[in-house]
Amino acid sequence: MEQVLSRLKGDKWIWIIVIILSGWSLLAVYSSVGTLAYKEGKGTEMYLFKHFSIIAIGLILMFLSHKLDYRYYAGISKLLMAITIPLLLYTLVFGNKVNDASRWVTIPVINQTFQTSDLAKLALITFLARMLSRKQEEIKDVKKSFVPIMGAVCVVFVLIAWANLSTAVMLFGVSVLLLLIGRISFKQIALVSLGVGLLGVLVISIGPRRATYFSRIKGFFSTEEIASNVPFQEDKNYQANNAKIAIATGGLFGKGPGNSVQRNVLPHPYSDFIFAIIIEEYGTVGGVILLFLYLALMYRCIRIVTLSPRAFGAFLAAGLGFSLTIQALANMAVAVGLGPVTGVPLPLVSMGGTSILFTSVALGIILSVSRNIEELKHKQELDETPKQKKVIVGTV
Q1: Fewer CB under 10 Å: which end of the chain, C or N?
Q2: pTM here?
Q3: Domain tally for the chain?
């Protein structure tokens, strides 16, 4: 283990956390896909192999991303934004519709679906980091700084929110945190937040998923009991209630890996509600450990922010770190009943394709910033060593 970690640059604790989460993901997904495999007439081993392949590709992308100097991502962010906005528009018009939501496009030849909002998150955060670091001297200038920065945030928010409001709200929240760190006027942020809030209300009111949004919000605040003979299609709290059952029956130490009962009842135990299955199998102790891993990841990202000598690196680590942690906390909150049901996966743990891959790239960029800090520190130590030797010789 030490030999492997010695070849990896950047924060070693982030590498360790990623490896632990990836291993845990394999166990949890393998335990959760039984019903899906039965419905599609396939073996669970096939899903395990596919998930393992995606994780392996993700780790490779993470390694390659961390080897590239993070300063190159400033230029890459412009290209990503130029691709992202047309791609989001294309997804809304021609994307694959599932539950009245156009979130995916099919990649030709390989015939695999691709969720464009995952690319949009990475593109917007890296673009904001670039803009904020380069506009610090004129950050209070509305025309030169505020308009182009907030324009990009609002455009991406609207394009994502139309089909995926929860992801858009979290991305906007991360953007606001970055803007506050970047010294954008609080008054200006408040005005834009008010405008975005009105846009969100508009999306909920007239958007293609308005019925789903209203039913989920109503179900979250409803205390009405549902009779046992009511079909699950008519129970708006069906997923949330069964997730609570999984958590309640898990106890302190859980039923053990592979012994979940609610995995056969929950519609998406391998993605949206995988945290509930983990608590059922590994208990409250397992849930707390998983929560601690994400908080530890955020702590290591904040440490990188404080040590980064350049603003761009600090903004990158902060934005990407906040994005991953907020997404993880949102998924966990839904599973334990602290929020309405959303389709947000648990980073690096839920079964998925583009989510794992882009999360891995984001972590690789954070590690690239950390690697640069280590190299600068090592260089400073080498520069100071000859001076120390001269002092010793002079004393003798």
Answers
A1: C
A2: 0.88
A3: 1
